[in-house]
Amino acid sequence: EIVLTQSPVTLSLSPGERATLSCRASQSIRSYLAWYQQKPGQPPRLLIYDASNRATGIPARFSGSGSGTDFTLTISSLEPEDFAVYYCQQRQNWPLTFGGGTKVEI
Amino acid sequence: QVQLQESGPGLVKPSETLSLTCTVSGGSISGYYWSWIRQPAGKGLEWIGRIYTIGDTKYNPSLKSRVVMSVDTSKSQFSLKLNSVTAADTSVYYCARAPPGVACTSTSCIGYFDSWGQGALVTVSS
Fold this sequence. Notes:
By secondary structure, chain A is mainly β. In chain A, about 0% of the residues lie in helices and about 50% in strands.
């Protein structure tokens, strides 16, 4: 099973600041990684797929990068609605796995 | 726009079977991979398994011995059965859709979860 380790667990920032979230895979997953955003009481929402492609309707302030084992989600300038939990997920191998999440808080 | 809705009992007794159904509306059930994912309160996401519309299934090995998924394309529904439940199975259960990926990996062509249900809380308790 591919283990995804996200860091930091919590990121405390202010609106307008830049957020950098990390996801590290236990083995190479090429570019087969997605990022999701989850707000309380809601299901996750797909932000980025295949490491660097924004999903439909996702603002340009969200960007993803990386390949192999190290991946980054960057939010260039935090909006109030961006404070949430972010998960990475790989589709390289079965079982599909998620990272433990990073909470971006004010 | 496709919508997914989970339904089923919110309370299941220990050792019994958890049964949930996901109804798909506003889009076709054919040509997609359909998954169940769960999330214990305050914790992360765990993928349970997926079914393709022809009935092909893939389960998480951690749950494989207890899980059965099925699909009814005539009703645009797919279902989850998890047997021999314990308190550790108490979670919010989501159904989700994944289209085929832009490219296939060495093991699969499943893409990512682009549509989700709102989630169903299932509590295992006597």
